[in-house]
Design goal:
The protein has helices at 18-32, 75-87, 89-109, 153-219, 225-259, 295-316, 361-427, 433-467, and strands at 51-52, 115-125, 135-148, 286-287, 321-332, 345-353. By secondary structure, the chain is α+β, with helices and mostly antiparallel strands.
Length: 475
C-alpha cells in the first residue's frame, strides 16, 4: 500500500529592507480584516427580584461590611476571627493559589515582550613552530526576536491569565467568608451549649428537689413507692442529659480550634453564654444587586472572562504568526576588542508562519474553547440562581425563627407558672405527683427548645451575612 505523507508547509520571508516588512504586514492586515477577534462580552443577564423585604430600618449603608462579625458585640469573637484569618490552613492554601495565579499571569505577559539571547565564544590557535605567540579570537552575538501580536493571541493569553488571577483572588475571598462564618457560627454554638448546660444542671437540681418532696411525702405515707420510682427516673433522665451536652461542647471546641489552626487539646474559650451576644438587626429593602458582589459570583464572572479570552486565543491560532528577528555581534582577535565598533554587524529579518494542514486540531481546539465557555455561562447562571435561593431561604428562616421564639417565650413563661403552682399544690396535697412530673418535664423541654431557637436565630444572621457576601451595612 502506498503511504501518503503530508508535511506542514511553512511560508518564510526574510528581508533586510523595512519596505518589504511593511508590505508583508499590510498584506496580513488586509487579510485579517474579515477575522476580527471579538471582545469578551459581559456576563449573561439573570433576572433578579427588585429586593427583599424584612422588618427593620431601611438599608442606607454602604456594602459590604468588612467587619460584620463585630456587630455581635463580642470582643472575644473579634479576636478569634482575627486569629482565624491569620492562621487558618485553608486560607493559607488559598493564598498560595492566588500567588501561583499571579506567577502564571506574569509568565503570560512575557509573550508580549521581545526575547533576547546572548551567544559568546573564544578560541586559541597554538603555534606549530617554536613561536610562543598564540592567536586568541572571540565572538559575541545578541539574538533578539519579537512576535507581532497581530491577531491578539498573546494579549488574549494575558487576559486569560489575569482573569484566572482574579478568579483565584475571589476564590480566596469565598474561602475567607466561609472560614469567618464558620468561626462565628461555631463560637455561637459553644456559647449556646454553655447556656444549655446551665439549664440542664438547673433542671437536674429541680428534679432532685422534687424527689426530696416525694421522699418526705412517702415518709408520712402520702406518696407511694411508684411515685418514688417515677421521680428517681426523672432525676436520672435529667442527669443523663449532661454528659451528652458536655461531649457536644468538646466537639464544638475542637472544631473551632481547627478553624483557628490550633491544637484542640490546648484550646479553650471563656464560659460565657449567648446573653453576651448582641443580635444584629436585619435591615429592610435590601436590593438584590448586593448579590453581584458575592465572591463566588465574581469568581464565576472571572472564569467566564478567562474562557472568553481562551476562545480568542484558539481563534487567533488559526491565523499566521509574524516574528521579527534581529542580531548584533562582534568578532575580534582578542577579547579586549570585543566592543570595537568596526566589528559590529547587525541584520534584521521577518518570518511568517502559517498553519496549512494540522488535521483539524486548531479548529477543534477552538470549538472546545467555545463549548467550555458555554458551560461556564450556564454555571454562572446557576451560581446566581443559587445565591438568590440562599438569601430568600435565610430571610424566611429569620422571619420564622423570630415568630417561633416569640411564641416559645410565652410558652416558657406559662410552663414556669404551671410548674410552680403544681409544686405548691402537691405540697398541700391538692395535686398528684403525675401533674408535677408533667409540668416539670414541659418546663425543661421548653427551656431547651428556647435555647436552641436562640442559637438558630443568631446562626441564621450569620448565614445571611454569608449569603450576601459580607452583610448589608458598613463596618
Amino acid at each position: 500500500m502506498r503511504q501518503r505523507v503530508v508535511r506542514h508547509k511553512q511560508i518564510q520571508v526574510e528581508t533586510r529592507r523595512p519596505g518589504a516588512l511593511a508590505a508583508c504586514l499590510a498584506g496580513m492586515l488586509l487579510a485579517g480584516c474579515a477575522h476580527k477577534i471579538p471582545v469578551a462580552e459581559p456576563p449573561p443577564a439573570v433576572e433578579l427580584p427588585a429586593g427583599w423585604s424584612q422588618s427593620g430600618t431601611p438599608a442606607s449603608h454602604e456594602w459590604p461590611d468588612t467587619n460584620w462579625w463585630q456587630r455581635f458585640g463580642s470582643d472575644e469573637l473579634s479576636q478569634l476571627v482575627r486569629e482565624g484569618q491569620d492562621s487558618n490552613l485553608e486560607l493559607a492554601a488559598a493564598l498560595s493559589r492566588v500567588r501561583q495565579a499571579a506567577a502564571q499571569a506574569r509568565i503570560a505577559g512575557v509573550a508580549l515582550l521581545p526575547s533576547v539571547d546572548a551567544y559568546a565564544g573564544a578560541s586559541r590557535d597554538l603555534p606549530i613552530t617554536g613561536n610562543h605567540n598564540a592567536n586568541v579570537s572571540s565572538t559575541g552575538q545578541l539574538q533578539v526576536s519579537y512576535e507581532l501580536d497581530f491577531w491578539g493571541k498573546n494579549a488574549a493569553g494575558v487576559a486569560a491569565a489575569d482573569a484566572s488571577l482574579r478568579a483565584n483572588f475571589y476564590d480566596r475571598q469565598t474561602v475567607a467568608l466561609t472560614v469567618t462564618s464558620g468561626i462565628v457560627s461555631t463560637y455561637l454554638q459553644i456559647l449556646s451549649l454553655h447556656d444549655r448546660l446551665i439549664v440542664a444542671r438547673e433542671n437536674a437540681r429541680t428534679a432532685q428537689h422534687v424527689l426530696s418532696l416525694v421522699e418526705a411525702q412517702s415518709s408520712v405515707g402520702a406518696a407511694t413507692s411508684v411515685d418514688l420510682a417515677r421521680q428517681r427516673s426523672a432525676v436520672a433522665s435529667q442527669q443523663a442529659a449532661l454528659p451528652a451536652l458536655q461531649q457536644q461542647e468538646r466537639e464544638a471546641q475542637s472544631a473551632l480550634a481547627i478553624l483557628l489552626g490550633k491544637s484542640p487539646q490546648t484550646f479553650r474559650i471563656s464560659d460565657s453564654g449567648l446573653d453576651t451576644i448582641r443580635l444584629p438587626e436585619v435591615t429592610a429593602g435590601m436590593p438584590s444587586e448586593l448579590l453581584s458582589r458575592r465572591p463566588d459570583i465574581r469568581r464565576s464572572e472571572a472564569l467566564l472572562a478567562a474562557a472568553s479570552a481562551n476562545v480568542d486565543m484558539a481563534r487567533a491560532a488559526l491565523f499566521p504568526s509574524i516574528r521579527l528577528t534581529g542580531s548584533t555581534g562582534t568578532q575580534s582577535s582578542a577579547l579586549v576588542s570585543l566592543l570595537n565598533a568596526q566589528n559590529l554587524f547587525a541584520n534584521v529579518g521577518a518570518s511568517l508562519v502559517a498553519p496549512i494542514f494540522d488535521g483539524g486540531r486548531l479548529r477543534t481546539e477552538r470549538d472546545l474553547a467555545i463549548e467550555q465557555k458555554q458551560e461556564l455561562v450556564q454555571n454562572y447562571r446557576a451560581t446566581v440562581l443559587s445565591a438568590l435561593a440562599e438569601v430568600d431561604t435565610v430571610l424566611g428562616q429569620i422571619h420564622s425563627l423570630d415568630e417561633q421564639r416569640r411564641l416559645k417565650e410565652v410558652e416558657l413563661e406559662q410552663s414556669r407558672v404551671a410548674f410552680n403552682l403544681s409544686e405548691i399544690r402537691y405540697k398541700a396535697g391538692a395535686e398528684d405527683l403525675m401533674t408535677v412530673l408533667d409540668t416539670q418535664r414541659s418546663l425543661a423541654d421548653v427551656q431547651n427548645e428556647l435555647g436552641i431557637l436562640k442559637l438558630k436565630r443568631l446562626q441564621a444572621t450569620v448565614s445571611l451575612y454569608k449569603a450576601l457576601g459580607g452583610g448589608w451595612q458598613a463596618g
